[in-house]
């Protein structure tokens, strides 16, 4: 945590930047991702949300998963003019399991305070994630209500353990509330958008996206591996 000397001689302690991490397949990204990110940022007083475009969810089949550059390009399009950075840092780190990605991110960005964000559908199967308790020990978790999943989420097998760390929103807004494990359940305007519905309605969505010249919003490195064509590059929000 950074400290600065005040004229009076007292040391002013500045709070670390608060970052929400929304990991996802983004196959493709949609308005629901944007909406929940903006809601959580406001509710928890976040400085930014980082969208971690996954090289591949370990629990999802490869079939039907668009290439990473296309998913990344869709995320760039959905996050425009919002305090959201789109990153494929997991590919760079060589991590696929969230527990490993979060450990690496905490080491690399050790001046940031992170919170893991996920929809209620993921809470329902959280107990199947690799070393899921260690994810909860690494940083607070914010779960967003999602139409069709809320009943399942509250009786999720992981809740037998995670439920005892449930905190009210007010506690999470205080800096000391960011201890882990902590779980906050958030309910905003329900958003029924899903990537599944978009793929069903528009199976060719990935073919229309130009994914050359993409640049990682967190590491600022070129993404590479895309087709040639005009696609906006760079980042949204402020500098990492
Ligand atoms: N409408 C929504 N409401 C709440 N959470 C959402 C919503 N859409 C996505 N999320 C959450 O965002 C994260 C990334 O989601 P993902 O990229 O898998 O999109 P998806 O719409 O859930 O995709 P799919 O339908 O292919 O499973 C997940 O934690 C998911 O629960
Ligand atoms: O680490 C795991 O075991 C694990 C299992 C399932 C999902 N995840 C992560 O959960 C996030 C949401 O995935 P998805 O496909 O539901 O968007 C994404 O970052 C995945 O890598 C992670």
From TrEMBL:
GO terms for biological process: NAD+ biosynthetic process. Pathway: Cofactor biosynthesis; NAD(+) biosynthesis; deamido-NAD(+) from nicotinate D-ribonucleotide: step 1/1. It catalyses: nicotinate beta-D-ribonucleotide + ATP + H(+) = deamido-NAD(+) + diphosphate. This is Probable nicotinate-nucleotide adenylyltransferase. InterPro entries: Cyt_trans-like, NadD/NMNAT, Rossmann-like_a/b/a_fold. One of its GO terms (molecular function) is ATP binding. Its EC number is 2.7.7.18. The gene is nadD. Catalyzes the reversible adenylation of nicotinate mononucleotide (NaMN) to nicotinic acid adenine dinucleotide (NaAD). Keywords: ATP-binding, NAD, Nucleotide-binding, Nucleotidyltransferase, Pyridine nucleotide biosynthesis, Transferase. Belongs to the NadD family. It comes from the Bacteria.
């Amino acid at each position: 945590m950074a400290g600065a000397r005040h004229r009076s001689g007292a040391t002013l302690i500045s709070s670390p930047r608060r970052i929400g991490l929304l990991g996802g397949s983004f196959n493709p990204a949609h308005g629901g991702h944007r909406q929940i990110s903006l809601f959580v940022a406001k509710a928890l007083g976040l400085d930014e949300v980082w969208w971690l475009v996954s090289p591949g969810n370990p629990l999802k089949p490869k079939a039907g998963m668009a290439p990473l550059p296309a998913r990344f390009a869709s995320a760039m399009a959905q996050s425009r003019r919002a305090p959201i950075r789109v990153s494929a840092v997991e590919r760079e780190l060589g991590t696929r399991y969230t527990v490993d990605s979060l450990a690496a991110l905490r080491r690399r960005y050790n001046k940031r305070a992170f919170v893991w964000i996920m929809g209620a559908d993921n809470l329902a199967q959280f107990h199947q994630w690799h070393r899921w308790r260690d994810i909860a020990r690494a940083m607070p978790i914010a779960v967003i209500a999602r139409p069709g999943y809320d009943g399942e989420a509250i009786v999720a097998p992981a809740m037998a353990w995670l439920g005892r760390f449930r905190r009210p929103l007010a506690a999470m807004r205080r800096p000391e509330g960011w201890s882990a494990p902590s779980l906050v359940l958030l309910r905003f305007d329900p958003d029924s958008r899903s990537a599944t519905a978009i793929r069903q309605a528009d199976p060719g969505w990935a073919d229309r996206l130009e994914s050359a010249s993409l640049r990682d919003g967190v590491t600022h490195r070129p993404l590479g591996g895309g087709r040639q064509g005009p696609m906006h590059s760079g980042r949204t929000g402020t500098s990492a």
